Predict the structure.
Amino acid sequence: MAREIAAAGTPPPSARDAFDVPDGVVYLNCASLAPRLKRVTAAGHAAVDRMAAPWNIHTPDWFRDARALASAFARLIAAPAQCAALVPSVSYGIAAAARNLPLRAGENIVVIDQEYPSNYYSWRRLADANGAEIRSVRPAGNASLTDAIVTAIDRRTAVVAVAHCRWTDGCLVDLPRVGEAARRHGAALVVDASQSLGACPLNVGDFQPDFLVSVGYKWLLGPYGLGYLYVAERWHAQGEPLEESWLHRAGSDNFASLVDYTPDYQPGAARFGQGESAQFYLVPMALEALSQIAEWTPEHIHRQLRAWTDELVARAEPWGFTAPGHSQRAGHMVGLSSERGLRPDLARAFAERGVYVGIRGSCIRVAPHLHTPLDAMDRLIEALQTIAV
Ligand SMILES: Cc1ncc(COP(=O)(O)O)c(C=O)c1O
């Protein structure tokens, strides 16, 4: 069997064996869709079977697993469980934040230039509706992305909406610095952690966001269609949800009195979550995924992937590829760019060699996970030399 990126601690016989990726496939696109864990697949099949007998689904089942999942997400970011809610997408979580954060005419919202659209369009709409400005930040010269964000924040900034890790090239944002600058100017901080959570340690106490959202199907190794939202306690009491799910109202676990309508919600961030939050098919799969990450730990995953991407950058540089500087980039993914530019059919040319990467903007985005065999590096470098130089 190919050598794989090793798991430390008391690892299972092989971290690679935990994934359902056939030998011969060099899948380096976790930043798009996670490789599937076998235990996630098994949980999905079991959930389908279980739902074939709906008479065995009882009132607590509508709440218990969803709450356990929200708690597992909260543990991952070192937040209180009551600050977590389940959402179907990042765009949903960002829309919930935009619904609740105040913005006045003449104020501004700071975003990263060429940010993923799910963390842009709600801000565009909010700014247009209120006569406010969108400030798109692009670092000039030698400035880091964080320097550029911090410089753009001023006393008229109402919201700073940033990623933790840039989706195209793995460039990291120093969230504690940005959080401190936002608080100093009285601005709210909203973070899209989709491209790091699960593969990077993250502790909300370090940067105190107002809202933080992540998809579940990339570095959190879960199914598509179920993501996570953190809402700081200060927004709970008066918070306005995007939809009024009966599941999130006080007393909703008493099915006999659902039409005793109540103005009260369940405590915490529950109100911000999606309708049908029981998600009988997706929640069991996501629970398995977060359990596996908790066993491996984001610190360990990040350390292993950092060693791999560092070696990749060192081997790609002589062939004319550059990456964000070591201290600027995350360890788990990296975008390689070339002054020569990239041919338009590059992704297909890689795929024809059984090598799967993402082409994003001007970058070849390489996003491995613990399933990645070490000989994948040779296959990738060989492909780079043959079709991308
Ligand atoms: C940074 C980032 N945010 C969000 C998403 C997905 O957003 P949504 O859940 O709204 O489809 C992606 C998908 O690639 C992403 O890279």
Summary: The first strand starts at residue 26 and ends at 27. Residues 7-12 have pLDDT under 50 and may be disordered.
